[in-house]
Amino acid sequence: MRVPDADLFNPQSVMDSDFSPGGASASASVDPDFGFAFDDSNFSDRTLRIEIMPDLPETKSDGGGCCSIADWARNRKRRREDFKKENGLFCFVSKIKIIDFIGQSEEQILNCNLPYTVDGVTYENQDEEAMAMVEESPSDIGLNSNQIGNDSIYNNDSSKNMDCSKVLRVKTIHISSPILAAKSPFFYKLFSNGMKESEQRHVTLRIHASEETALLDLLSFMYSNTLSTTTPTALLDVLMAADKFEVASCMRYCSRLLRNLPMTCESALLYLDLPSSVLMADAVQPLTDAAKQFLAVRYKDITKFQEEVLNLPLTGIEAVFSSDDLQVASEDAVYDFVLKWARTHYPKLEERRGIFATRLSRVIRFPYMTCRKLKKVLTCIDFDPELASKVVLEALFFKSEMPHRQRALAAEEANATYRRFVERAYKYRPVKVVEFELPRQQCVVYLDLKREECTHLFPAGRVYSQAFHLGGQGFFLSAHCNMDQQSSFHCFGLFLGMQERGSVTFAVDYEFAARSKPTEDYVSKYKGNYTFTGGKAVGYRNLFGIPWTAFMSDDSIYFINGILHLRAELTIRQ
């Protein structure tokens, strides 16, 4: 379907129609089907000659091909490790060398392991019989771990190079340059660079044997907008080829098919570990989002999978601990677990500090950690001192903000990947604590509960606060839905407990209060004193003196903007 007044070979038109997210929402379903023209000389203006070269010994699959996600991942990992050994670097300048042979129909030869091109062109006069055109991509292009033997033409280590003398087989395909150029900026640049080479009728691509099937599937897709393959490993191969040749519509198509297949931990981790060039593509974003969501849901309650989560790679840890729905006791527990994971996977201190600075500190929500734990962050050797000071100060400033300001900061991060100020679904509710040493040791504790949290307490639930300390002893608050003393109706109860068990005794005066309408001031509801021993709790079964239905009613005076504000004052008795 031709867009009126649009130039098919105008780069902006191509970008708008096929490569932009808005114009490509359903490209595979609305684009015209030119499948009938694939490899048909009647509808082609050029010939593509594909030279199939041997795979490197280290990258050959064990069983004649990858039959599972695990095989695919291991094979790709071998390729990546081999390439790192060969080149000794993680980033390099990709090069495409097109050799113009006299007497060979002015044939273009491209090593298709090196897909990235730019408009800048440099000519080198090698001798009277041949001239080479070298295109170099920006030097900051990252290593694509599926590109085997990149830059091999120029590597002096012949044992690792793609040996041009060993062509296993050759495939010749008739192609239409307008169709390929409309689908791929790579081919668009190749066919429209204004040089003599763009007018040549024969193009040779040189690939490894392991890439043959994926390339043929990709070329077929560029005509028909569909793929015959449906297995995860084959789709991943085509996805890598589509990234290499910049066919965004095929990347979206593969991403959608993979997303519709049953997800496993293995496949989710693999999708998150794809080369950076693939991960950064908008077309693959829905797939990586689905993988992150799968891991976050599976490990929602990490207490059930501690050993399994401890063995996850970095990408898995980021996916799990970036979730708002993580069921964890407190953010202190998140900090302790991430610290344990880092010490297990990065035993060297400098590496560990580096990974905290660049990746791991983003998944810890320091503003929701207790002040006692934040003090430990300041002295933790795993954090660079400057980073530790920064995150602790940020946390303390957040804690000092008014509730409406805290909610505003959280709302600003609604669409962010890493949300520092958004509260998780903690098993133990965060509290604010103000401590006094004189004239007597005293603390004032503020606990806020949402209406939804209170609703879930019925008929016999309870919710606990995070621990707070007074006189060196740990205490907690617990809110209950329980029966009144005569067991005639349900009501809201509030209790104060001491953590330590054993022979320790502690005499405390305490007072419970709650905000109420219309003044919205704290109103005292219950006073008492108690001599605590470890593991004991004291409180009031019906704090407000009304049934549960009245407490939870829409016109309840105790919920202010959907929040129940509770306060407990504790004073050590002399």
TrEMBL record:
Pathway: Protein modification; protein ubiquitination. GO terms for cellular component: nucleus. InterPro entries: BACK (IPR011705), BTB/POZ_dom (IPR000210), POB1-like (IPR045890), SKP1/BTB/POZ_sf (IPR011333). Residues 162-231 form the BTB domain. Pfam families: BACK, BTB. GO terms for molecular function: protein heterodimerization activity; protein homodimerization activity. SUPFAM superfamilies: POZ domain, TRAF domain-like. One of its GO terms (biological process) is protein ubiquitination. The keyword NAD does not apply. Keywords: Ubl conjugation pathway. It comes from the Eukaryota. May act as a substrate-specific adapter of an E3 ubiquitin-protein ligase complex (CUL3-RBX1-BTB) which mediates the ubiquitination and subsequent proteasomal degradation of target proteins. PANTHER family: BTB_POZ DOMAIN-CONTAINING PROTEIN POB1-LIKE (PTHR46336:SF30), OS02G0260700 PROTEIN (PTHR46336). This is BTB domain-containing protein. It comes from Gossypium raimondii. The lineage of its organism: Eukaryota, Viridiplantae, Streptophyta, Embryophyta, Tracheophyta.
